[in-house]
Write a structure and sequence with these properties.
The chain is α+β, with helices and mostly antiparallel strands and 116 residues long. The protein is built from two helices and three strands, in the order ααβββ.
């Protein structure tokens, strides 16, 4: 079931509030931190929140109807849909796993996870 904008926003706001609490708890526990220490905690929280934001959007994309029969990048023949598979990626937003349609070429057996 597709989430509404309001449902997505509510989930993201909960995570943002948690990150704010983590930062403020850290501040209370660290008397006179230096710039590097502040940057470390902020960058850690930014990475975690960014991964969850990307995952929220990409998770919905995995449930959409797969692209019908793309051309094989190796031989040009039409690729066949092989079902949903898990994909682990390292993106600029961080590490994430999600499911989406997988295609394989019946001629040369090259695989493809659209959109790439």
């Amino acid at each position: 079931m597709k989430k509404t904008r309001e449902q997505k926003k509510a989930k993201l706001m909960v995570r943002l509030e948690k990150a704010a609490d983590e930062l403020l708890d850290w501040e209370e526990e660290n008397d006179r931190p230096n710039l590097t220490q502040v940057e470390d905690i902020v960058l850690k929280l930014r990475k975690e929140v960014g991964e969850e934001m990307a995952d929220e959007i990409l998770g919905e994309m995995g449930g959409k109807t797969p692209v019908p029969g793309p051309a094989c990048p190796k031989c040009g023949k039409e690729m066949r849909y092989k079902g949903q598979r898990e994909k682990h990626i390292e993106s600029r937003a961080g590490e994430m796993e999600y499911e989406r349609g997988y295609y394989a070429c019946p001629e040369c057996d090259k695989g493809l996870f659209p959109p790439g």
